[in-house]
Design a protein that fits this description.
Number of helices: 4
Number of strands: 0
Largest sheet: none
CATH topology: Four Helix Bundle (Hemerythrin (Met), subunit A)
Helix content: over 70%
Strand content: under 5%
Order of helices and strands: HHHH
CATH architecture: Up-down Bundle
CATH class: Mainly Alpha
Shape: elongated
Structural class: mainly alpha
CATH superfamily: Membrane associated eicosanoid/glutathione metabolism-like domain
Distance between the termini: 26 Å
Number of domains: 1
Radius of gyration: 17 Å
Length: 131
């Protein structure tokens, strides 16, 4: 069982659901059936949702590979918490505000940090396994 990755995958899935509902709710309110309809609020919500979908699955996969390779629980929790906080800040910035640059900036930095560390550790794990 990959318990640590499962924990963060579950928490992130709940946040993804919130972001999804925010897009759907605004579609109904603004009467936008497809796309962003040229509405800046709709565009922000769509991009907040899509950006999550672009980064989170890969980082969770990297975490799962690290956990299967018996990486430190501290490293895994560090990666998971960094990703979760980053995605929360980024999602709040895009889906709950008109413009909150600190949330967007810090969210991106934390997400990229998780991607960099998880990717690097997976590459090292693979190289070690190859001998």
């Amino acid at each position: 069982m990959i318990a640590i990755t499962s924990l963060y995958a579950g928490l992130l899935a709940l946040w993804f659901l919130v972001l999804s509902i925010r897009v759907i709710q605004y579609r109904g309110t603004a009467k936008i059936n497809v796309g962003d309809g040229g509405d800046p609020t709709m565009l922000r919500r769509i991009r907040g949702h899509a950006n999550f979908a672009e980064y989170v699955p890969l980082i969770l996969l990297l975490m799962a590979l690290l956990e299967l390779g018996h990486a430190s629980v501290y490293v895994l929790h560090g990666l998971g918490a960094t990703l979760l906080v980053g995605r929360l800040l980024h999602g709040i910035s895009f889906s709950f505000t008109d413009y909150w640059m600190p949330g967007r900036f810090v969210g991106v930095i934390l997400t990229f940090l998780a991607l960099l560390v998880a990717g690097g550790l997976c590459a090292l794990q693979g190289l070690r396994a190859l001998g």
